[in-house]
Amino acid sequence: MVLSELHGKLTRALRQLDNETIIDEKVLNDCLNEITRALLQSDVQFSLVRDLQINIKRTVNLGQLAHGYHKRNIIRRAVEEELCKILDSGKTSYVPKKGNASVVLFVGLQGSGKTTTCTKYAQFYRKKGFKPALVCADTFRAGAYDQLKQNAMKANVPIYGSHTESDPVQIAVEGVDSFRKKTHDLIIVDTSGRHKQEEVLFEEMRQISVATNPDLVIFVMDSSIGQATYDQALAFKQSVAVGAVIITKMDGHAKGGGALSAVAATKSPVIFIGTGEHMDDFKEFDVKPFVLRLLGMGDISGFTNKVHELVAVNQQHDFMQRLSDGNFTLRNMYQLFQSMHEMGLINEVSSMLAGLAAPKGHEKESQLKFKRFMIMMDSMTNEELDSSNPKLMNKSRILRIARGSGHRVEEMEEMMEKYKLMATIPKRRDMSAVSQNRNSQRMIPPQMLNHISRLGGLKDFMKMGWT
Ligand SMILES: Nc1nc2c(ncn2[C@@H]2O[C@H](COP(=O)(O)OP(=O)(O)OP(=O)(O)O)[C@@H](O)[C@H]2O)c(=O)[nH]1
């Protein structure tokens, strides 16, 4: 989990609400104080945190809420909305389109992770079916070309560069022209970084930018400097037309929250975050799912996207229909888990579902949790498995299933919470993303299909009742 410390503190603060029978001013203040402390410790700017607290108190006016109103949910929703506000730049970024020959220029200070991120970006789009290529216009640092070459080889992306030419502008122009002729539809230009924000670096960036006329300039920034990213992002924006930001090293830095919020305050959209040194340690950044995950409420859109990756196109509509009609049963969940398990995707999917994510190195815990859930579902009757009415699962049934499967009642309740979360996806979230995905022509990747059939899981997968 990215920002695991902040995640832990925020979820603890919200969980406290469940321990209280009456939600009064004191409980709300205690909860808000904890959230405030957690955000400040993550280096979020004081004024942003202060505004968040004021706004939440204004939204959650306990005195005016009618008796019986679900105060806990109103508080949770207000926290979610205010965090989204802090992290949302209000701007969208240019998105490369297949077949369009987009040119994307990467800029940033030395050591920010620019070269690594260029390759991660190329690989991300290669996996989406693009034909990306890399141009090394860093003639400042000896070895930059070789580093990018090595990375490019790993990511299986062609590269243009020179050991002898010293003019980065000429290399950039030649590289872009050459890849355009070869019909590459995403040409990524890596530029040199310097130790600090020197004028000479900005001048070089400006010249490369004028000469290559990029569709998008991406500023790469290291998260370890926290809220100081604000000044850095502004300085770069004033020199080149920065259209998007990628924040790196979010895996190791407690100040990541500060970095994300400070960049948003400059009205620059963060589009990806770097979460490690490896090529796959790269995540699309989307404010709402990120906040939901941070608050332990699950990454719904990530989950629905995953479903779309795994379910054949002709079945996606029906599957989403079941979800949207509220007909998603425990049996559906059981079969989904089973397929994920067989495909070795438990960790990937679990990180999208509230509370199932395990920190790096503890993935086994997630797997055990899924197994535990499946064992508990094995102790259910057909009526329980096939009902889409969560109310059917009353206290005595929960007790019986927990006892019968050798688990604690709390473990059973935790599973029911996850089920409700999945079953109510479309009710709680905007279905437009889902319907957009319906139209996407994504199929199960062939190698995955082979894998499922080898495991004999394809039959189960198809029997999930999604057809
Ligand atoms: N932990 C972690 N390390 C990263 C991440 N991104 C990059 N790095 C590491 O940061 C270091 C610097 O990365 P580079 O890609 O060489 O940085 P750069 O900005 O291109 O540097 P110059 O080419 O000198 O300007 C390398 O050791 C990378 O492996 C990340 O998201 N997480």
TrEMBL record:
It holds the Pfam family SRP54_N. The keyword Coiled coil does not apply. Signal peptide: none annotated. It is found in: Cytoplasm; Endoplasmic reticulum. GO terms for biological process: SRP-dependent cotranslational protein targeting to membrane, translocation. GO terms for molecular function: 7S RNA binding; endoplasmic reticulum signal peptide binding; GTP binding; GTPase activity. One of its GO terms (cellular component) is endoplasmic reticulum. Transmembrane segments: none annotated. Keywords: Cytoplasm, Endoplasmic reticulum, GTP-binding, Hydrolase, Nucleotide-binding, Ribonucleoprotein, RNA-binding, Signal recognition particle. The NG domain, also named G domain, is a special guanosine triphosphatase (GTPase) domain, which binds GTP and forms a guanosine 5'-triphosphate (GTP)-dependent complex with a homologous NG domain in the SRP receptor subunit SRPRA. The two NG domains undergo cooperative rearrangements upon their assembly, which culminate in the reciprocal activation of the GTPase activity of one another. SRP receptor compaction upon binding with cargo-loaded SRP and GTPase rearrangement drive SRP-mediated cotranslational protein translocation into the ER. Component of the signal recognition particle (SRP) complex, a ribonucleoprotein complex that mediates the cotranslational targeting of secretory and membrane proteins to the endoplasmic reticulum (ER). As part of the SRP complex, associates with the SRP receptor (SR) component SRPRA to target secretory proteins to the endoplasmic reticulum membrane. Binds to the signal sequence of presecretory proteins when they emerge from the ribosomes. Displays basal GTPase activity, and stimulates reciprocal GTPase activation of the SR subunit SRPRA. NCBIfam families: SRP54_euk (TIGR01425). This is Signal recognition particle 54 kDa protein.
